[in-house]
Every structure is written in C-alpha cells, then in structure tokens.
Amino acid sequence: DGGITQSPKYLFRKEGQNVTLSCEQNLNHDAMYWYRQDPGQGLRLIYYSQIVNDFQKGDIAEGYSVSREKKESFPLTVTSAQKNPTAFYLCASSVMGGYTFGSGTRLTVV
Amino acid sequence: SQELEQSPQSLIVQEGKNLTINCTSSKTLYGLYWYKQKYGEGLIFLMMLQKGGEEKSHEKITAKLDEKKQQSSLHITASQPSHAGIYLCGAPYFNNNDMRFGAGTRLTVKP
Description:
The complex is a heterodimer of chains A (110) and B (111).
Chain A: E1 4-7, E2 10-13, E3 19-25, E4 31-37, E5 43-51, E6 54-57, E7 64-66, E8 76-78, E9 87-95, E10 98-101, E11 105-109
Parallel strand pairs in A: 2-11
Antiparallel strand pairs in A: 1-3, 3-8, 4-5, 4-9, 5-6, 7-8, 9-10, 9-11
Chain B: E1 4-7, E2 10-14, E3 19-25, E4 32-37, E5 43-49, E6 55-58, E7 61-66, E8 71-76, E9 85-92, E10 99-101, E11 105-110
Parallel strand pairs in B: 2-11
Antiparallel strand pairs in B: 1-3, 3-8, 4-5, 4-9, 6-7, 7-8, 9-10, 9-11
C-alpha cells in the first residue's frame, strides 16, 4: 500500500544535539512538506520541496534544515539552533493539491 | 496571523447530539479541505470542497463551502464517541506553495 512513513514515532533530544527525522513516501508525489504542530495551534510550515534537489523555507525554518536527494525521501534535521524544538512534527506529500500525511514524530528535549 | 480561523476551539457534546464546526478564511478561498486527527497521530483526509455552494457528505459528516462568506462548516449528525478528535480545515492560497491550516477544533463526545 502507498503511503508516508515517518520515523521514529518518539524522539528525545538532549540540549545542543542535532537530530534527524525521517520521512519516506512511495506515492510518487513530487511535493513534500514538513509541518510543526504545537498544542492549540495549527500546523506551521517549516520547509517544503516541490522537486528533487530543490527546497524552500516555510514560515518557521530557523533552526531546521532539510535535503531532497531522492523523490521518496525528505529528512528534517532539527539543529541545536532551534531553541524550542519540543513539538509534534508532521510530514506530508501532495499531488494536484491533495495532501497525504505521515503519522508524525513527537520530539522532546530532555 | 492565521489565514484560517476555526470555531469553536473545543467542543464537548453528549453522544447522539448534532454539532457544527466553522472555518473562516481571511483571504479568497480556492478550495477547502477538512481533516481529522487523533491525538499524537497524523491527519486523515475527510473531504475536499472546491466550488462555492458545494456540499459533501460521508457517513454522518457533512461539509459545505460558502465562497461569498469565505467560510466552510462541518456538521456531524448524531455524534458518536468515534467522532472524537481534532478537526482541522486547510486551504491552498495562490501566493503560497503549500496549504494553510486552522488551529483545529477539539471534539469530545461523552457516552
């Protein structure tokens, strides 16, 4: 079955560490997105990519980095520069406006 | 500021009651999506509305789009505990290359 796989489901990060969240899709979608979700707030866009080897900053890109070396993969790195990284992270892909979401990764700073 | 405002923020209803969730856009709508999210999980697509006046139904959930008011409503008839979760509306805008989302409405259905 086609879909988006995010891993891990739960992730703990120590202060000053970089961590990478994985997002893989087998839907053959060109566009992929990373959103951050905080309690009581909607999804906020971190980065998006419309084609391989190209990506654009979203509204809250500071402290994050991404790569898009393959169509299927769009990993997100949360760097030590992100001062408040504890949140729920959602990856999505889309074609013709229809979005498919992964099941999310909950990142906690310890 | 958010392009999409949802109301109410949270809703507690008794099982069997009807309820309505609203989503209002501050910009022209070119389409409107409704998603449901269980806590700690991804978003599940419910419905997409593209034309003004369009109305779609799936089981006991009905969504309408009023382009003039730049608003959509989601109505659940005879609510059940399985309807509990967070409902989010999303919309694409021409000057964005992504979809913008409302803050969500948290629905609790009491048995």
